[in-house]
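dumping this here so i dont lose it
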């Protein structure tokens, strides 16, 4: 962990420890289907504490029948996901702390959402979520917790990247002679239907993430960051510091490949976050390793997708548009 400069946020765990002890002011940052993310500033006159404005975020659960209590989620991650990473890689998991909510924090959040909804309605700019007015948060007696996490995008002299490594092995049910891996096949099928380019479609083949060929790695990094992707510092750091984490993820995906999708699916949906300081990798963190993905509905959806990949012939087709899969290159 980089502690060799004066960055007060070089150890995100320390930032979180400080922020757990002070009252917070919330600012709306973004939201997903299940949570709203607030950027937070300590409400304090102490200059040392005040330094930690916006270096962390608070993730607050939405009041929906599909969301589970924060404590239940955090416990499940601690018991099911964290042990998979062992002492060597546990620091690559996004740090998270259980934050005890107060009436004041909850009121601030509800007020922010109420104003935002009002503003959006008045400006006819739509609503917070496509399906209509976004729900607020559950009452304190139903949800006494939020999740405190570092904001890796924050800070001077920092650079931030994120990408999804996706499926790092071929699907066990892919047909013989496949020209595409599971991710490239999924992306090709979606593109052939004219669908929107999904978050998992990074434009590179996940199997290439293990390559020791600098030209191939450069190609991937240029997709992740067109401005810096061809820099030697980026390629070197990828090969030395980032590839071992991807390798571990791949090992875990392979070990759990027989478990009817559940754990490998969670591992395949993770997001890799890179925080750089002065052109050196300060943090490689995996986020979104969330057990909420393990719903029966999602499992059915993924099984249906795999059946469609097989029946549509997209694994083996020679006439599909899109980026070249590592498997296809090996065959040509
Ligand atoms: Zn591929």
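and the seq i came up w/
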């Amino acid at each position: 962990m980089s502690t060799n400069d004066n960055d007060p946020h070089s150890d995100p765990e320390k930032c979180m420890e400080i922020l757990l002890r002070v009252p917070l002011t919330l600012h709306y940052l973004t939201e997903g289907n299940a949570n709203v993310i607030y950027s937070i500033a300590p409400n304090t006159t102490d200059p040392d504490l005040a330094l930690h404005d916006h270096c962390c975020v608070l993730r607050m659960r939405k009041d929906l029948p599909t969301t589970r209590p924060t404590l239940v989620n955090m416990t499940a991650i601690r018991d099911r996901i964290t042990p998979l990473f062992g002492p060597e890689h546990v620091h690559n998991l996004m740090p998270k702390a259980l934050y005890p909510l107060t009436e004041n924090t909850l009121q601030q959040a509800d007020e922010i959402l109420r104003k935002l909804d009002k503003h959006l309605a008045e400006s006819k700019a739509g609503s917070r979520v496509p399906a209509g007015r976004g729900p607020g948060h559950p009452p304190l007696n139903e949800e006494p917790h939020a999740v405190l996490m570092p904001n890796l995008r924050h800070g001077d002299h920092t650079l931030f990247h994120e990408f999804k490594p996706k499926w790092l092995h071929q699907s066990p049910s892919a047909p013989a002679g496949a020209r595409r891996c599971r991710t490239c096949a999924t992306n090709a099928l979606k593109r052939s239907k004219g669908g929107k380019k999904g978050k998992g479609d990074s434009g590179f083949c996940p199997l290439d993430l293990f390559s020791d060929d600098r030209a191939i790695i450069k190609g991937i990094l240029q997709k992740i960051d067109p401005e810096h992707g061809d820099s030697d510092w980026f390629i070197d750091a990828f090969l030395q510091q980032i590839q071992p984490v991807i390798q571990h993820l791949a090992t875990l995906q392979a070990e759990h490949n027989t478990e009817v999708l559940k754990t490998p699916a969670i591992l395949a949906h993770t997001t890799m976050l890179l925080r750089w300081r002065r052109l050196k990798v300060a943090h490689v963190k995996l986020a979104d390793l969330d057990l909420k993905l393990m719903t029966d509905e999602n499992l059915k959806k993924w099984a249906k997708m795999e059946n469609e990949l097989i029946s549509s012939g997209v694994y083996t087709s020679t006439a599909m548009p899109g980026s070249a899969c590592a498997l296809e290159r090996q065959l040509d």
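The mean pLDDT is 87.
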